[in-house]
Amino acid sequence: MEKKILIVAAVFGFLAIILGAFGAHALKKVLTLDQLTSFETGVKYQMYHALFLLFVGTSNMLTLKDKTIVFYLTVVGIFFFSGSIYVLTTSSITGIKSKIIGPITPIGGMFLLSSWGLLIYKLLIKK
């Protein structure tokens, strides 16, 4: 499982760099400043959590079961939080109707908070 976590972390980091460059260069010409700022927020949180997963995957302070739960909470959180932000901010150029996607962003945030909360809890109870 640790290898899977590290691979997914590396992929998320890789994609965050690509999306960040895409936003800074290609999207700069077609999105508003507010849309670009929101897009960047999605990229930042994706990268933060890629680094978080690198920590989780290499930590010897968590059981494999705990790592697995944190991993899935984080992956779902990234898809819901950052993914929904990417769709929402680019809907004007992609034509994707985004009204239904808006509520997904805070759900993704709750998954991310849950992954951090579980980590904190597991570290606090660790003997």
From TrEMBL:
The keyword Transmembrane helix applies. It is a multi-pass membrane protein. It is found in: Membrane. The keyword Transferase does not apply. The chain crosses the membrane at residues 45-62, 69-88, 100-121. InterPro entries: DUF423 (IPR006696). Keywords: Membrane, Transmembrane, Transmembrane helix. One of its GO terms (cellular component) is plasma membrane. Its main location: membrane. Belongs to the UPF0382 family. This is DUF423 domain-containing protein.
